[in-house]
Amino acid sequence: MAFSALNIVRSFSSSSVMNLALKNVTVIGSGLMGSGIAQVAAQTGHNVTLVDVSDPILKKASSRIEKSLERVAKKKFHDNEPESEKFMKETLQRLKTTTNTADSVKEADIVIEAIVENMKVKHDLFKTLDKAAPKSTLFASNTSSLSITEIASVTDRKDRFGGLHFFNPVPVMKLLEVIRTQETSDDTYNKMMTFGKELGKTTITCKDTPGFVVNRLLVPYMGEAVRLLERGDATARDIDTAMKLGAGYPMGPFELLDYVGLDTTLFILEGWHEKYPDNPLFQPSDMLKKLVSEGKLGMKTGEGFYKHQK
Ligand SMILES: NC(=O)c1ccc[n+]([C@@H]2O[C@H](COP(=O)([O-])OP(=O)(O)OC[C@H]3O[C@@H](n4cnc5c(N)ncnc54)[C@H](O)[C@@H]3O)[C@@H](O)[C@H]2O)c1
């Protein structure tokens, strides 16, 4: 049966009557991903605390969430103003922000980390969280490319630790990859799967391997496309056209690289290459390195493989 968490939210007038697997959610990092995760969790009836390092950053995140919620409300309720306003008001009431990391997890059922992609910074954060959060609190990382096992290694709750890998933009993308390490308990895994469905996502499960499912296939595919271009076998435009019309992909590899950010893709490849130097799929190409060194990072800088209007 199709499960829509939003419908559940709408069918109950008060969120307090909702029986959610993990009701109190703390999201650490209010950037692109964290603000999206916080929004979707609040939208689906969870009490959300969003954490970042400064108030101006949190203010920016709040206004980004509000704008995104307006789009959701418009799509969901069309011209029904009262319903739309009620949805916005109730969602925003469930969302608070803070810069106090330790306090933010005191009542959390789950903490989702979405901070910078750096093992040392994530370790420092999880050491703090492990001390501050109740023993029963589950921990999850939204990392794209780092090992969940390695992130969890600094905590005393490896059985209550898993990966929740969301996709950008979180309110739009339907997939959630739920990552089980060898130590993630059945109970933690089951709760994370239920939580994912409560967020309205379609969940898939993957072991803790580089890139999980989506990035493990996509990142080497983009790397191979760059090598094809580097050899002069075809133009970027023709490769993109080929993959859209010949394989039915919504974007070609170079459009995707420009969207994701060339620096992000290079960073992932370099991290994997360092860890697995013998895997040719993880070898970063000279062309990618050159474009990144020139600051051509894709849409965010106005130029990558294509020129974009900023
Ligand atoms: N961008 C994507 O498409 C994408 C997709 C899936 C997963 N991810 C993963 O999600 C995570 C976040 O990525 P993003 O693109 O949202 O990054 P981002 O740079 O947009 O946001 C990161 C936020 O974390 C905050 N932060 C840094 N250290 C912190 C700390 N110690 N405590 C609290 N806040 C802190 C920063 O101030 C910033 O606001 C990364 O691990 C990334 O690999 C990214």
From TrEMBL:
GO terms for biological process: cell differentiation; fatty acid beta-oxidation; spermatogenesis. It is an enzyme of class 1 (oxidoreductase). Pathway: Lipid metabolism; fatty acid beta-oxidation. Residues 211-307 form the 3-hydroxyacyl-CoA dehydrogenase C-terminal domain. SUPFAM superfamilies: 6-phosphogluconate dehydrogenase C-terminal domain-like, NAD(P)-binding Rossmann-fold domains. It catalyses: (3S)-3-hydroxybutanoyl-CoA + NAD(+) = acetoacetyl-CoA + NADH + H(+); (3S)-hydroxyhexadecanoyl-CoA + NAD(+) = 3-oxohexadecanoyl-CoA + NADH + H(+); (3S)-hydroxydecanoyl-CoA + NAD(+) = 3-oxodecanoyl-CoA + NADH + H(+); a (3S)-3-hydroxyacyl-CoA + NAD(+) = a 3-oxoacyl-CoA + NADH + H(+). Its EC number is 1.1.1.35. NAD(+) binds at G29, S30, G31, L32, M33, G34, D52, E117, K122, S144, N168, K300. GO terms for molecular function: (3S)-3-hydroxyacyl-CoA dehydrogenase (NAD+) activity; NAD+ binding. InterPro entries: 3-OHacyl-CoA_DH, 3-OHacyl-CoA_DH_CS, 3-OHacyl-CoA_DH_NAD-bd, 3HC_DH_C, 6-PGluconate_DH-like_C_sf, 6PGD_dom2, Mito_3-hydroxyacyl-CoA_DH, NAD(P)-bd_dom_sf. One of its GO terms (cellular component) is mitochondrial matrix. Residues 24-209 form the 3-hydroxyacyl-CoA dehydrogenase NAD binding domain. Keywords: Acetylation, Differentiation, Fatty acid metabolism, Hydroxylation, Lipid metabolism, Mitochondrion, NAD, Oxidoreductase, Spermatogenesis, Transit peptide. CoA binds at S68, K75, S144. Its main location: mitochondrion. It is found in: Mitochondrion matrix. Homodimer. Interacts with GLUD1; this interaction inhibits the activation of glutamate dehydrogenase 1 (GLUD1). Belongs to the 3-hydroxyacyl-CoA dehydrogenase family. Mitochondrial fatty acid beta-oxidation enzyme that catalyzes the third step of the beta-oxidation cycle for medium and short-chain 3-hydroxy fatty acyl-CoAs (C4 to C10). Plays a role in the control of insulin secretion by inhibiting the activation of glutamate dehydrogenase 1 (GLUD1), an enzyme that has an important role in regulating amino acid-induced insulin secretion. Plays a role in the maintenance of normal spermatogenesis through the reduction of fatty acid accumulation in the testes. This is Hydroxyacyl-coenzyme A dehydrogenase, mitochondrial. It comes from Araneus ventricosus. The lineage of its organism: Eukaryota, Metazoa, Ecdysozoa, Arthropoda, Chelicerata.
